[in-house]
Amino acid sequence: MTVELICVGTELLLGNTVNTNAAYISEKCAMLGLSMYYQSVVGDNPGRLKDLLLTAMKRSSILILSGGLGPTQDDLTKETAAEVLGKKLVEDKAARQEIEEFMKKRGRVITENNWKQALVPEGSKVLYNQNGTAPGIIMESDQVKMILLPGPPNELIPMFEEQVFPYLYELQPDIICSKMVKLCGIGESSAETKILDLIETQTNPTVAPYAKTGEVHLRITAKASSEKAAYDLIAPVETELQNRFGNLIYTDDPNVTLEDAIYELLKEYNLTVTTAESCTGGLVAGRLINVPGISQFLKEGYVTYSNEAKEKLLNVPSEILKEHGAVSPQTAEAMAVGGAKAAGTDLCIAVTGIAGPDGGTEQKPVGLVYMSCYCKGKLFTEKNQYSGSRSKIREYSVASALTLLRCAIMESVSEVNVCGS
Amino acid sequence: MTVELICVGTELLLGNTVNTNAAYISEKCAMLGLSMYYQSVVGDNPGRLKDLLLTAMKRSSILILSGGLGPTQDDLTKETAAEVLGKKLVEDKAARQEIEEFMKKRGRVITENNWKQALVPEGSKVLYNQNGTAPGIIMESDQVKMILLPGPPNELIPMFEEQVFPYLYELQPDIICSKMVKLCGIGESSAETKILDLIETQTNPTVAPYAKTGEVHLRITAKASSEKAAYDLIAPVETELQNRFGNLIYTDDPNVTLEDAIYELLKEYNLTVTTAESCTGGLVAGRLINVPGISQFLKEGYVTYSNEAKEKLLNVPSEILKEHGAVSPQTAEAMAVGGAKAAGTDLCIAVTGIAGPDGGTEQKPVGLVYMSCYCKGKLFTEKNQYSGSRSKIREYSVASALTLLRCAIMESVSEVNVCGS
After folding, report:
1. Comparing A84 with B389, which gets the higher pLDDT?
2. Which residue of A has its CA nearest to B24?
3. Distance of CA B118 to CAs A364, B92, B163, B256, B318, Å?
4. A358 to chain B: which residues are within 8 Å by CB?
5. A·B CB contacts under 8 A
6. How far apart are CA B8 and CA B79, in angstroms?
7. What is the mean pLDDT of residues B178-205?
8. B307 has a pLDDT exceeding 90
9. Which are the contacts of B142, defined by CB distance < 8 A and separation ≥ 6?
10. Identity of the highest mean pLDDT range in A167-171, A415-419, B136-140, B227-231
11. Nearest to B63, CA basis, from B106, B91, B89, B29
């Protein structure tokens, strides 16, 4: 069954609002196994909305509309949808009462235009709105089902969750499930090359790669009559990905981030960590502290942006700075060793580089970033050359630093080969 | 002139990705005075993309496409657009060289599928991609102009900024100019209430508010036959905003960020600064280090996530921690004083709070964040109560900390009243 999404709102066309409703509704529809081939955004303009509805009806069997159900003159989604399906608007007593109660509860004055929201297309199913005055509407014709939802996410989401999801679930014989296998330490092209055969030959489940900053995510998606049957289809493909990528995989859970995975390793091996950051200036610590509970393992971190700070806080010998410069493997390693000692931790991840836009030389160009991870007496050191803006270089440095931290833990504690594999 | 946006990507239809590109491009087109009536999203499916392009060509004169320019098998935007306009794909030598250099610089292996990205429709204008391997493309026919952009925002945004915006600007007979008056330390509703008369009555120039994390941006946009005439229209409105918001305005330049404005103040008054962060864990330092050249004024920063670290690195008395707790105005102030002393700086911005999701109590709920700024003997302390997720709370804390840092400098050094105005 195909579903199509039409978001109505001039604010979306002007770029004032990011369309989070689209991502939310799409994800739910994907979960339900509904195929969505098109999403559209159109302004509060009945003529253009009508054109779009007529086009969409030809290609999709369920249309979900959001927005344009408000009380003002330019909210015309309901009127237009009813016209397209040839339905009259009639007042819904329950809707009228709900509007009255909603406004009374909040001590707001009901204005004449509020009553417009109690009008619904004849024969439609009315969806109760607990967070606003615009009821949602489901209209059915032989050709199409139209689901009209209010635009504000705090009204749309609970209405979808409680009333639309169960409605769509009933329509759908199949279930779609997916797993997200996340990799770090490999580029998108290399990852894809390794699984081109799977991407090309698999139809159920399918495998699709997504490039993220410093990571590649592989989604395995299966369609089946039950959740169990779908995961049974996914399992052998996931095993195959594990065979091919090994320890580059840090999770198969879409909600787990790289810093979450590192946190789990710290917990498993009871390791403490600190950060010693030059060009990333606090962002590596900032990422690790995304994880609630990390305080047990990360107690402090150092932003050592100047040479003086590297000497003072991390005890980097001034001779190293003089001889090799602040951006060198020697300095990165001295920062890592010194940071771990200063903080009394098992691990220290250190980053030093030239984020630009100035400060580069021919020998040490902008984007040259050294990082070193100290882990219980061992050092893991890496040279990276990035390009792009200052913020890009810093962002990629943070991702690489977390990847290096993860692999240092795995190699030195669990004695698994992962770095540079 | 009408522009239409088509975002290509199955990840958008599956709800894996929020379509921030759409908001970004729409906002830019609105700035340019281009009318956008439709946005669409379609998957990596050449048949459906072709249908959509044929429909869009009939109703819009400029089509902007994003996504589907990657090296993989399912990236087919370029191939499909070229087919619709009847153009052959030919290898672009410069694009091939850029891909080669990009991959070499990063020490990555070039795989066969990378070369697909060097193919461009004959006679098209190639847009250089400094942050990735997919070049952008502009194709022109009598009927339509098509602009193809890579999907990842870090590639799309600089390409749009530097190459597409100037191209579109040239197509427009009227000139649209705007200034972005940026405020910190005031909420969106309060800001809007103060200028409701301007928003409602102005037609040229217009004033529109945009809510950003911890900031409000007011865009003044004027349309005129020349740049000078446009800025002449803008000037009196900007003066009016200055009268109404005073020192809450930190810039009128769209490219200047709050951390840039702070950098200018540090430079002007020759002040050094350090950071002492608990719940924000490095992100305040990370923001300040966004500014190239900040190293002159920020030499080091402290991530003091545990009580021990607050005592050890910032010399916070253990009695204060015991008596008032880590999340208290007293601790925030002791962190600020101690941080400035440890780093030997004029200023220290300190943040301590409960980012959640756990750790809250009735008296100190999740989202309670204290911050204090030490500035040459004076202390500026603030209590904030945020709501939302852990990352939301941390993000808002960072924005408030920068706002407090700015106002501490202005009040204590330039003796201008701004904090809490």
Report:
1. A84
2. A15
3. 29, 6, 18, 35, 62
4. 292-293
5. 268
6. 13
7. 87
8. yes
9. none
10. B136-140
11. B29
- The whole-angstrom distance between B70's CA and the closest CA on chain A is 9
With CA atoms as reference, report the closest residue to B5 among B40, B47, B34.
Answer: B40
Q: Is B14 on the interface with A (CB under 8 A)?
A: yes
**Which residues of B fall within a CB distance of 8 Å from A283?**
282-283, 286
Residue B83: is its pLDDT beyond 60? yes
Residue B380 has pLDDT above 90, yes or no: yes
Q: Is B210 on the interface with A (CB under 8 A)?
A: yes
| Residue pair B414/B407 in contact by the 8 Å Cβ criterion | no
Give the A window 276-315 contacts with B, CB below 8 Å: 277, 279-286, 288-290, 292-295, 298-306, 308-309, 312-313
3 state SS of A103: helix
Give yes or no for A52 touching B (CB within 8 A): yes
Looking at the DSSP bridge assignments, the partners of residue A304 are B300
pLDDT level of residue A211 (50, 70, 90 thresholds): confident
List the structure tokens of B116: 């697909």
Q: Where are the alpha helices (DSSP H) in A132-277?
A: 153-159, 165-171, 188-194, 196-201, 227-245, 258-269
Q: Which residues 360-379 on chain B approach chain A with CB closer than 8 angstroms? A: none
Is A305's CB within 8 Å of B286's CB?
Answer: no
Question: In the structure, what pLDDT confidence band is assigned to residue B122 with cuts at 50, 70 and 90?
Answer: very high
Chain B hits for A279, CB-CB cut-off 8 Å, are 289
Residue B420 is predicted with a pLDDT of: 52
Provide the 10 A C-beta neighbour count for residue B120.
25
The whole-angstrom distance between A92's CA and the closest CA on chain B is 32
Q: Omega of the bond prior to B365 within 30 degrees of 0, cis? A: no
- Measured at the CA of A149, the angle between CA A148 and CA A154, to 5 degrees, comes to 180
Contact A303, A281 (CB under 8 A): yes
- In this structure, is the dihedral angle defined by the CA atoms of residues B147, B153, B155 and B158, taken in order, positive or negative? positive
Sort residue A15 into left (φ over 0), alpha (ψ -120 to 50) or beta.
left
Which of B16, B130, B281 is facing A289, going by the closest CB pair? B281
Q: Which residue from B38, B303, B308 is facing A41, i.e. has the nearest CB?
A: B38
Give, rounded to a whole angstrom, the gap between the first and last alpha carbons of chain B. 43
The answer to whether B375 touches B413, Cβ cutoff 8 Å, is yes
Chain A interface test: which of B213, B305, B314, B389 (most A C-beta within 10 Å): B305
CA-wise closest residue to A290 among B280, B213, B17, B371:
B280
For residue A288, the Cα-to-chain-centroid distance in whole angstroms is: 17
Report the side by side order of strands in the sheet with B215-224: B206-212, B215-224, B175-184, B249-251
What are B178's strand-pairing partners? B221
A72-86, A343-357, A368-382: which has the minimum mean pLDDT? A72-86
Cβ under 8 Å to B: A residues 225-264: none
How many angstroms from the chain centroid is the CA of residue A135?
A: 30
Q: Is the pLDDT of residue A28 over 80?
A: yes
Q: What is the pLDDT at residue B202?
A: 82
Query: Quick check: B168 and B214 in contact, CB under 8 A?
Result: no
| Secondary structure element (H or E) that encloses residue A80, with its range | helix A77-84
* Calpha distance B11→A178 (Å, rounded): 13
Q: What is the pTM of this model?
A: 0.77
* Any A CB within 8 A of B20 CB: yes
